[in-house]
């Protein structure tokens, strides 16, 4: 039953954001909800599981660091801004029953995806396994190291881009400094990397079910590379000559030295 309780708590969280989004007339606020949504599942499972293993505490801690940072960053950036072009396109496509469709196709769907992504963390906290041997230490430590590599990369990408956009002289220009010099989507690379870190850390439970932990980074990496991340932005700048010049010398995802 704990699995159901966790989802119901998560669903209530997303419904609160749905109400806020309708008041603000901005369904893009679901992006703000995303990070803390995974945290809600992680913390709920930690409390309901009542295991408090070292692996569970570390994995939950890493999740809180990621989710809190991401949601706060997006809150500052998006809460009082115009609705993102992706969600505007949805509105134009739906035409009728927009609020109902937003509930079903955006917020309810996001809650389900959020639960699936959080499932390895949930399992880590709910499955009884207090073993923490040398292999567990290595896996959790390696996972934490990979997490912080990705986390730092993502923070650098977001912070440098934010500063770049605040400078009026950069209007219409393409960000090509800092980590953006080595990847056209360093924030997405950082996001995928830190989730691989969390996935590897969950393997520290040394349970056969713990291998489900790799589902999250696999799904997130696939979505970022082929569905919601890289493809949408690459399409948006398809006709931008400055961006195409930048693209000709810069790796699309994995950080690499720029081509001459």
UniProtKB/TrEMBL annotation:
Instruction: Answer whether the UniProt record assigns the keyword Transmembrane to this protein.
Output: yes
The reply on keyword Transmembrane is: yes
A GO cellular component annotation in the UniProt record:
membrane
Where is coiled-coil annotated?
Answer: none
Q: Which UniProt keywords apply?
A: Membrane, Transmembrane, Transmembrane helix
Annotated transmembrane regions: 6-21, 28-48, 54-75, 102-123, 135-156, 194-227
Q: Name one Pfam family in it.
A: DUF1295
Q: What is this protein called?
A: DUF1295 domain-containing protein
């Amino acid at each position: 039953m704990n699995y159901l309780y966790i989802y119901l708590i998560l669903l209530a969280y997303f419904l609160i954001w749905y109400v806020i989004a309708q008041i603000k007339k901005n369904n893009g606020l679901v992006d703000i909800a995303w990070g803390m949504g995974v945290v809600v599942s992680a913390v709920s499972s930690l409390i309901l599981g009542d295991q408090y293993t070292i692996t569970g505490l570390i994995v939950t801690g890493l999740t809180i660091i990621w989710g809190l940072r991401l949601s706060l960053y997006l809150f500052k950036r998006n809460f009082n801004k115009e609705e993102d072009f992706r969600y505007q396109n949805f509105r134009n496509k739906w035409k009728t029953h927009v609020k109902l469709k937003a509930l079903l196709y955006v917020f309810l769907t996001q809650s389900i995806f959020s639960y699936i992504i959080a499932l390895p963390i949930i399992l880590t906290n709910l499955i009884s396994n207090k073993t923490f041997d040398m292999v567990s230490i290595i896996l959790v430590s390696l996972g934490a190291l990979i997490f912080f590599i990705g986390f730092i990369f993502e923070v650098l990408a977001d912070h440098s881009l934010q500063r770049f956009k605040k400078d009026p002289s950069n209007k219409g220009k393409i960000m090509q400094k800092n980590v953006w010099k080595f990847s056209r989507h360093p924030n997405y690379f950082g996001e995928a990397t830190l989730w691989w870190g969390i996935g590897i850390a969950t393997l520290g439970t040394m349970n056969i079910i713990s291998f489900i932990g790799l589902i999250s980074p696999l799904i997130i990496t696939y979505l970022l590379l082929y569905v919601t991340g890289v493809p949408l932005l690459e399409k948006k700048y398809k006709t931008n000559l400055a961006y195409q010049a930048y693209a000709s010398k810069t790796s699309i995802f994995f950080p690499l030295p720029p081509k001459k």
